[in-house]
Amino acid sequence: MKVLVTGGAGYVGSMLVPMLLEKGHTVRVVDWLAHGGQSLLPVWSHPGFEFIGGDLRDPGVVTAAVKDVNAVVHLAAIVGDPACARDPELAKSVNVGASLSLIAAAKAAGVERLVFASTCSNYGRMKDPEGFVDENADLAPVSLYAETKVAVENAVLAAGEDKGICSTALRCATVFGVSPRMRFDLTVNEFTMEMISRKEIKVFGETMWRPYIHVRDMARGIIAVLEAPRASVAGEVFNLGSTDQNYQKQQLVDLIKPHAPDARVEYVHKAEDPRDYRVTFAKIKAALGFETTRSVPEGIREVADLVRSGIISDFADSRWRN
Question: How far apart are CA 79 and CA 17, in angstroms?
Protein backbone atom coordinates (compact mmCIF):
# COMPACT_ATOMS: atom_id res chain seq x y z
CA MET A 1 0.00 0.00 0.00
CA LYS A 2 0.89 3.65 -0.29
CA VAL A 3 0.23 4.98 3.21
CA LEU A 4 -0.12 8.56 4.38
CA VAL A 5 0.99 9.02 7.98
CA THR A 6 -0.03 12.35 9.46
CA GLY A 7 2.22 13.45 12.30
CA GLY A 8 4.83 11.00 11.06
CA ALA A 9 7.71 12.86 12.72
CA GLY A 10 6.16 12.45 16.18
CA TYR A 11 6.66 9.99 19.01
CA VAL A 12 4.53 7.22 17.48
CA GLY A 13 4.87 8.23 13.83
CA SER A 14 8.67 8.07 13.83
CA MET A 15 8.41 4.48 15.05
CA LEU A 16 5.61 3.54 12.64
CA VAL A 17 7.11 4.94 9.43
CA PRO A 18 10.26 2.75 9.30
CA MET A 19 8.21 -0.30 10.24
CA LEU A 20 5.85 0.32 7.32
CA LEU A 21 8.80 0.76 4.97
CA GLU A 22 10.37 -2.47 6.24
CA LYS A 23 7.15 -4.30 5.38
CA GLY A 24 7.30 -3.08 1.79
CA HIS A 25 4.76 -0.26 1.90
CA THR A 26 5.55 3.19 0.54
CA VAL A 27 5.00 6.03 2.99
CA ARG A 28 4.17 9.69 2.69
CA VAL A 29 4.49 11.75 5.86
CA VAL A 30 2.84 15.10 6.42
CA ASP A 31 3.98 17.00 9.51
CA TRP A 32 4.33 20.64 10.54
CA LEU A 33 7.48 19.75 12.52
CA ALA A 34 6.44 21.54 15.71
CA HIS A 35 9.01 19.44 17.57
CA GLY A 36 11.54 19.17 14.76
CA GLY A 37 12.09 16.55 12.10
CA GLN A 38 15.34 14.82 13.08
CA SER A 39 13.39 11.67 13.87
CA LEU A 40 12.86 11.18 10.11
CA LEU A 41 16.55 11.25 9.19
CA PRO A 42 16.91 7.44 9.31
CA VAL A 43 14.27 7.03 6.55
CA TRP A 44 14.99 10.18 4.55
CA SER A 45 16.88 8.43 1.74
CA HIS A 46 14.59 5.40 1.54
CA PRO A 47 13.16 5.13 -2.00
CA GLY A 48 9.70 4.47 -0.59
CA PHE A 49 9.62 7.57 1.61
CA GLU A 50 8.09 10.96 0.79
CA PHE A 51 7.69 14.04 2.97
CA ILE A 52 5.30 16.99 2.88
CA GLY A 53 6.01 19.76 5.36
CA GLY A 54 2.84 21.60 6.24
CA ASP A 55 -0.19 22.21 8.42
CA LEU A 56 -3.29 20.06 7.89
CA ARG A 57 -5.42 23.14 8.49
CA ASP A 58 -4.22 24.28 5.05
CA PRO A 59 -6.57 22.86 2.37
CA GLY A 60 -3.73 22.73 -0.15
CA VAL A 61 -1.63 20.60 2.16
CA VAL A 62 -4.53 18.22 2.78
CA THR A 63 -5.24 17.81 -0.95
CA ALA A 64 -1.61 17.06 -1.70
CA ALA A 65 -1.34 14.69 1.23
CA VAL A 66 -4.20 12.37 0.25
CA LYS A 67 -3.46 12.29 -3.48
CA ASP A 68 -2.89 8.75 -4.78
CA VAL A 69 -2.64 7.02 -1.41
CA ASN A 70 -4.40 3.79 -0.48
CA ALA A 71 -4.54 4.36 3.24
CA VAL A 72 -4.34 7.12 5.85
CA VAL A 73 -3.04 6.70 9.40
CA HIS A 74 -4.10 9.82 11.25
CA LEU A 75 -1.79 10.53 14.19
CA ALA A 76 -1.37 14.31 13.90
CA ALA A 77 -2.84 16.16 16.87
CA ILE A 78 -2.17 18.38 19.81
CA VAL A 79 -1.58 15.41 22.10
CA GLY A 80 -2.36 15.21 25.80
CA ASP A 81 -4.45 17.04 28.36
CA PRO A 82 -1.83 19.69 29.32
CA ALA A 83 -1.03 20.65 25.73
CA CYS A 84 -4.71 21.00 24.82
CA ALA A 85 -5.50 22.96 27.99
CA ARG A 86 -2.65 25.35 27.27
CA ASP A 87 -4.18 26.50 23.96
CA PRO A 88 -7.76 25.25 23.63
CA GLU A 89 -8.50 27.04 20.37
CA LEU A 90 -5.41 25.59 18.71
CA ALA A 91 -6.34 22.15 20.00
CA LYS A 92 -9.84 22.39 18.57
CA SER A 93 -8.67 23.66 15.19
CA VAL A 94 -5.98 20.99 14.83
CA ASN A 95 -7.58 18.00 16.51
CA VAL A 96 -11.12 18.50 15.18
CA GLY A 97 -11.15 21.02 12.34
CA ALA A 98 -8.14 19.65 10.48
CA SER A 99 -9.21 16.05 11.13
CA LEU A 100 -12.67 16.60 9.64
CA SER A 101 -11.10 18.21 6.58
CA LEU A 102 -8.71 15.28 6.21
CA ILE A 103 -11.54 12.74 6.44
CA ALA A 104 -13.58 14.56 3.79
CA ALA A 105 -10.57 14.87 1.49
CA ALA A 106 -9.68 11.19 1.92
CA LYS A 107 -13.21 10.15 0.96
CA ALA A 108 -13.21 12.47 -2.05
CA ALA A 109 -9.82 11.12 -3.19
CA GLY A 110 -10.98 7.52 -3.03
CA VAL A 111 -8.72 6.47 -0.17
CA GLU A 112 -9.52 2.88 0.73
CA ARG A 113 -8.57 2.75 4.42
CA LEU A 114 -8.45 5.16 7.35
CA VAL A 115 -7.01 4.35 10.78
CA PHE A 116 -7.48 6.94 13.50
CA ALA A 117 -5.39 7.03 16.67
CA SER A 118 -7.84 7.79 19.46
CA THR A 119 -7.33 7.28 23.20
CA CYS A 120 -8.53 5.25 26.17
CA SER A 121 -8.87 8.61 27.93
CA ASN A 122 -12.29 8.71 26.29
CA TYR A 123 -13.53 6.42 29.07
CA GLY A 124 -12.92 9.01 31.78
CA ARG A 125 -13.73 7.25 35.04
CA MET A 126 -14.97 3.66 35.05
CA LYS A 127 -18.24 3.02 36.87
CA ASP A 128 -17.10 -0.24 38.47
CA PRO A 129 -13.77 0.28 40.29
CA GLU A 130 -13.23 -3.49 40.38
CA GLY A 131 -13.94 -4.11 36.70
CA PHE A 132 -12.66 -3.34 33.24
CA VAL A 133 -14.08 -1.19 30.46
CA ASP A 134 -14.39 -2.48 26.91
CA GLU A 135 -15.32 -0.88 23.58
CA ASN A 136 -19.02 -0.90 24.49
CA ALA A 137 -18.55 1.14 27.67
CA ASP A 138 -19.99 4.63 27.89
CA LEU A 139 -17.59 7.37 26.85
CA ALA A 140 -17.14 10.06 29.48
CA PRO A 141 -14.40 12.43 28.32
CA VAL A 142 -13.31 14.80 31.08
CA SER A 143 -10.69 16.79 29.18
CA LEU A 144 -10.64 18.82 25.99
CA TYR A 145 -8.14 16.35 24.54
CA ALA A 146 -10.51 13.41 25.02
CA GLU A 147 -13.48 15.46 23.80
CA THR A 148 -11.69 16.14 20.52
CA LYS A 149 -10.85 12.47 20.12
CA VAL A 150 -14.46 11.41 20.67
CA ALA A 151 -15.66 13.93 18.09
CA VAL A 152 -13.24 12.66 15.46
CA GLU A 153 -13.97 9.02 16.29
CA ASN A 154 -17.61 9.68 15.41
CA ALA A 155 -16.64 11.30 12.11
CA VAL A 156 -14.23 8.50 11.23
CA LEU A 157 -16.85 5.82 11.77
CA ALA A 158 -19.50 7.81 9.90
CA ALA A 159 -17.14 8.06 6.93
CA GLY A 160 -17.28 4.30 6.54
CA GLU A 161 -21.05 3.99 6.42
CA ASP A 162 -22.86 2.98 3.21
CA LYS A 163 -19.82 1.08 1.87
CA GLY A 164 -17.57 4.09 2.26
CA ILE A 165 -13.95 4.16 3.31
CA CYS A 166 -12.77 1.26 5.51
CA SER A 167 -12.41 3.24 8.71
CA THR A 168 -11.20 2.08 12.12
CA ALA A 169 -10.70 3.89 15.42
CA LEU A 170 -8.04 2.69 17.86
CA ARG A 171 -8.45 3.71 21.49
CA CYS A 172 -4.81 3.53 22.47
CA ALA A 173 -3.42 2.91 25.93
CA THR A 174 -0.92 5.41 27.33
CA VAL A 175 2.29 4.97 25.37
CA PHE A 176 5.77 4.42 26.81
CA GLY A 177 9.23 3.44 25.64
CA VAL A 178 12.09 4.85 23.58
CA SER A 179 11.30 6.40 20.21
CA PRO A 180 13.30 8.37 17.62
CA ARG A 181 11.28 11.42 18.75
CA MET A 182 11.63 10.85 22.45
CA ARG A 183 9.12 12.11 25.01
CA PHE A 184 9.61 12.43 28.77
CA ASP A 185 6.12 13.77 29.51
CA LEU A 186 4.44 10.36 29.35
CA THR A 187 3.83 8.65 32.68
CA VAL A 188 6.20 5.66 32.52
CA ASN A 189 8.94 7.62 30.77
CA GLU A 190 8.53 10.64 33.06
CA PHE A 191 8.48 8.68 36.31
CA THR A 192 11.55 6.70 35.27
CA MET A 193 13.49 9.79 34.20
CA GLU A 194 12.63 11.78 37.33
CA MET A 195 13.40 9.00 39.79
CA ILE A 196 16.79 8.30 38.20
CA SER A 197 17.99 11.77 37.15
CA ARG A 198 16.39 13.94 39.87
CA LYS A 199 16.16 11.29 42.58
CA GLU A 200 12.74 12.51 43.62
CA ILE A 201 9.19 12.48 42.36
CA LYS A 202 5.78 13.75 43.41
CA VAL A 203 2.94 11.42 42.41
CA PHE A 204 -0.67 12.58 42.28
CA GLY A 205 -3.50 10.06 42.59
CA GLU A 206 -1.33 7.01 43.19
CA THR A 207 -4.25 4.52 43.17
CA MET A 208 -5.72 5.55 39.81
CA TRP A 209 -5.59 3.00 37.00
CA ARG A 210 -4.30 3.41 33.44
CA PRO A 211 -3.45 0.92 30.68
CA TYR A 212 -0.06 1.18 28.97
CA ILE A 213 1.43 0.15 25.62
CA HIS A 214 4.97 0.28 24.25
CA VAL A 215 5.39 2.66 21.32
CA ARG A 216 6.61 -0.19 19.10
CA ASP A 217 3.54 -2.25 19.94
CA MET A 218 1.28 0.69 19.14
CA ALA A 219 2.91 0.87 15.72
CA ARG A 220 2.49 -2.89 15.31
CA GLY A 221 -1.19 -2.60 16.19
CA ILE A 222 -1.74 0.10 13.59
CA ILE A 223 -0.06 -2.05 10.93
CA ALA A 224 -2.15 -5.06 11.97
CA VAL A 225 -5.32 -3.06 11.34
CA LEU A 226 -4.02 -1.71 8.02
CA GLU A 227 -3.21 -5.19 6.76
CA ALA A 228 -6.30 -6.96 8.15
CA PRO A 229 -9.16 -8.08 5.93
CA ARG A 230 -11.63 -5.26 5.44
CA ALA A 231 -14.47 -7.26 7.00
CA SER A 232 -12.51 -7.57 10.25
CA VAL A 233 -11.88 -3.86 10.82
CA ALA A 234 -14.34 -1.76 8.79
CA GLY A 235 -16.39 0.49 11.06
CA GLU A 236 -14.82 -1.01 14.18
CA VAL A 237 -13.41 0.48 17.36
CA PHE A 238 -10.60 -1.41 19.08
CA ASN A 239 -8.88 -0.76 22.37
CA LEU A 240 -5.17 -1.07 21.60
CA GLY A 241 -3.02 -2.45 24.37
CA SER A 242 -2.81 -5.46 26.67
CA THR A 243 -5.13 -6.31 29.54
CA ASP A 244 -2.21 -7.39 31.77
CA GLN A 245 -0.54 -3.99 31.32
CA ASN A 246 -3.02 -2.01 33.44
CA TYR A 247 -1.23 -0.36 36.36
CA GLN A 248 -1.83 2.05 39.20
CA LYS A 249 0.70 4.86 39.49
CA GLN A 250 2.02 3.48 42.77
CA GLN A 251 2.65 0.15 41.06
CA LEU A 252 4.70 1.94 38.41
CA VAL A 253 6.81 3.57 41.12
CA ASP A 254 7.39 0.18 42.74
CA LEU A 255 8.59 -1.21 39.39
CA ILE A 256 10.99 1.71 38.91
CA LYS A 257 12.46 1.62 42.45
CA PRO A 258 15.02 -1.12 41.70
CA HIS A 259 16.47 1.21 39.05
CA ALA A 260 16.44 4.21 41.41
CA PRO A 261 16.69 2.88 44.98
CA ASP A 262 17.68 6.28 46.39
CA ALA A 263 14.77 8.21 44.87
CA ARG A 264 12.48 10.02 47.30
CA VAL A 265 8.79 9.53 46.48
CA GLU A 266 6.02 11.83 47.71
CA TYR A 267 2.45 10.71 47.21
CA VAL A 268 -0.27 13.35 47.00
CA HIS A 269 -3.50 11.47 47.57
CA LYS A 270 -6.47 12.38 45.42
CA ALA A 271 -9.73 10.78 46.46
CA GLU A 272 -11.35 11.90 43.22
CA ASP A 273 -9.58 11.73 39.87
CA PRO A 274 -11.82 12.11 36.83
CA ARG A 275 -9.55 9.76 34.87
CA ASP A 276 -9.47 6.28 36.35
CA TYR A 277 -9.91 3.39 33.98
CA ARG A 278 -8.77 -0.20 33.70
CA VAL A 279 -9.24 -1.50 30.18
CA THR A 280 -9.68 -4.89 28.52
CA PHE A 281 -8.10 -5.51 25.13
CA ALA A 282 -9.76 -8.83 24.39
CA LYS A 283 -11.52 -7.63 21.25
CA ILE A 284 -8.45 -6.85 19.15
CA LYS A 285 -6.84 -10.12 20.24
CA ALA A 286 -9.91 -12.09 19.21
CA ALA A 287 -10.46 -10.25 15.93
CA LEU A 288 -6.87 -9.88 14.71
CA GLY A 289 -4.79 -12.10 16.95
CA PHE A 290 -2.92 -9.01 18.10
CA GLU A 291 -0.85 -9.21 21.26
CA THR A 292 1.75 -6.83 22.63
CA THR A 293 5.40 -7.89 22.83
CA ARG A 294 6.89 -5.49 25.40
CA SER A 295 5.80 -5.02 28.99
CA VAL A 296 5.93 -2.00 31.26
CA PRO A 297 8.86 -3.45 33.27
CA GLU A 298 10.77 -3.94 30.01
CA GLY A 299 9.97 -0.39 28.97
CA ILE A 300 11.14 0.96 32.31
CA ARG A 301 14.47 -0.83 31.88
CA GLU A 302 14.78 0.53 28.33
CA VAL A 303 14.13 4.12 29.45
CA ALA A 304 16.35 3.75 32.51
CA ASP A 305 19.24 2.66 30.29
CA LEU A 306 18.65 5.69 28.03
CA VAL A 307 18.55 8.11 30.98
CA ARG A 308 21.85 6.79 32.31
CA SER A 309 23.55 6.60 28.91
CA GLY A 310 24.33 10.30 28.50
CA ILE A 311 22.80 10.35 25.02
CA ILE A 312 20.29 12.88 26.34
CA SER A 313 21.71 15.40 28.79
CA ASP A 314 19.03 18.03 29.41
CA PHE A 315 15.80 16.31 30.34
CA ALA A 316 14.11 19.67 31.01
CA ASP A 317 14.47 20.75 27.37
CA SER A 318 11.09 21.40 25.76
CA ARG A 319 11.96 19.17 22.79
CA TRP A 320 11.24 16.13 24.96
CA ARG A 321 7.68 17.27 25.76
CA ASN A 322 4.45 18.08 24.00
Answer: 19
